[in-house]
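For concreteness, we quote verbatim a single protein encoded this way:
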Amino acid sequence: MTHKLLDTAEAATYLGVSKAFLERDRWAGARIPFIKIGSRAVRYRQNDLDQYIDQQVRLSTSQYGEEEK
């Protein structure tokens, strides 16, 4: 099985967020899964990003995600 790996800029574009959003997410505890390659390279698997997107579906603006209850 092959996984398309995206760097931070590509992942940010894919999600429609800023690079800073992803950097803060990693610093704060990583709700969005990422992979470290070597000591510095950060990559995101496209299928992990798709799963993250699917988990964000809400029916109203007042609805919390499962982990936020």
Q: What stands out?
A: The radius of gyration is 13 Å. The chain has one domain: 5-61. The longest helix spans residues 19-28. The beta strands are 5-6, 35-37, 41-45.
